[in-house]
Write a structure and sequence with these properties.
Pfam families: TetR_N (PF00440). Keywords: DNA-binding. InterPro entries: Homeodomain-like_sf, HTH-type_TetR-like_transc_reg, HTH_TetR. This is TetR/AcrR family transcriptional regulator. It contains 10 helices and no strands. The protein is mainly alpha-helical. The chain folds into 2 domains: about 55 residues, Homeodomain-like (Arc Repressor Mutant, subunit A, Orthogonal Bundle), CATH 1.10.10.60; about 120 residues, Tetracycline Repressor, domain 2. Helix 1 crosses helix 2, helix 4 packs antiparallel against helix 5 and helix 5 packs antiparallel against helix 7.
């Protein structure tokens, strides 16, 4: 089940202010000192809140990383669900699959290390988030349309596997270019 917009519990005003302070401080730390600096005690100090306040809302670095990524994830989802083609509706299923994979690679280029923290801090979290399920279901729907009769769910998992942030970061640090990674996906789609 994916959460429905507006179904989130109401947040107290002071809690909302603290959440904003924490997210601003965390984003500033990541921007100035890198993802490695994303330690909850340092975020608390930078936000001017108690460490317990941070831990109650974000029990680990992965949860905080997910929160930092939330706005860009929403934009990415809007682009492939209702944006202009070829990423959004209006192009063929094959064109949309390619556009989705390329857009995901672009996103990893900008947020790969933070996504890696979000995905690896808690075992298997990558596969249990609403975002992954949405990405998977979107690809499975497009694969089923492009190639009726194949196992679309397996193919969707197979296409998403190389988009794991740790894999991408490893490839980039090993000298592989974004262009090469996108070309690799194009070859997989042939």
């Amino acid at each position: 089940m994916l959460p429905m917009p507006g179904s989130e519990p109401k947040e107290r005003a002071d809690a909302a202010r603290n959440r904003q302070k924490i997210l601003r401080a965390a984003a500033q730390l990541v921007a100035t000192r890198g993802v490695e600096s994303l330690a909850l005690d340092e975020v608390a100090a930078a936000a001017g809140v108690g460490v317990g306040t941070v831990y109650r809302r974000y029990p680990d670095r992965g949860a905080l990383a997910h929160a930092l990524l939330e706005e860009n994830e929403k934009k990415f989802q809007a682009a492939f669900m209702s944006g202009p083609p070829p990423l959004g509706p209006g192009a063929s299923a094959r064109e949309r699959i390619r556009a989705f994979l390329h857009a995901f690679v672009d996103r990893l280029e900008h947020e790969g290390k933070l996504l890696m923290v979000a995905e690896t801090e808690t075992p298997l979290v990558r596969y249990t988030t609403g975002a992954y399920r949405l990405h998977h279901n979107h690809l499975a729907m497009l694969v089923a349309e492009a190639e009726p009769g194949i196992d679309a769910h397996f193919r969707a998992d197979a296409l998403l596997a190389p988009l794991a942030a740790a894999q991408f970061v490893y490839q980039r640090e090993s000298g592989m270019s974004v262009k090469q990674i996108k070309a690799g996906f194009d070859q997989l789609l042939q």
